[in-house]
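User: Just a sanity check before I run the rest of the batch. Below are the C-alpha cells for the first item. I only need the designed sequence back.
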C-alpha cells in the first residue's frame, strides 16, 4: 500500500514538472530536452530542473517577507534625522 502512495506522489511530481516545462518561454527543442531528461533520468532530471527553476526565479515576492533593501531603509531613515535638527 505504501508503494502505491509513493507511486501516486511520483506521478503527481512528474505531471507538475511536465506542466511547468510546457509553460517555459523557451524553444520547443529545449522543452523536449527537459521533458526527456525528466522522464528518462527521473531523479537527476527533476533535481536539475529544480536547480534551473531556482536560478531563474523571480524573487520579487520576497520583499514582502524580508522588507525593503538596506539602501531603501537608509533613505527612509535619513529624512527623520534631518527633521529633528
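Assistant: Here's the designed sequence for the first item:
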Amino acid at each position: 500500500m505504501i508503494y502505491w502512495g509513493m507511486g501516486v506522489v511520483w506521478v503527481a511530481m512528474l505531471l507538475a514538472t511536465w506542466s511547468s516545462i510546457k509553460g517555459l518561454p523557451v524553444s520547443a527543442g529545449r522543452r523536449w530536452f527537459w521533458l526527456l531528461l525528466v522522464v528518462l533520468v527521473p531523479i537527476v532530471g527533476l533535481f536539475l530542473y529544480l536547480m534551473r527553476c531556482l536560478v531563474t526565479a523571480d524573487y520579487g515576492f520576497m520583499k514582502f517577507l524580508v522588507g525593503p533593501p538596506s539602501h531603501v531603509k537608509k533613505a527612509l531613515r535619513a529624512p527623520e534625522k534631518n527633521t529633528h535638527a
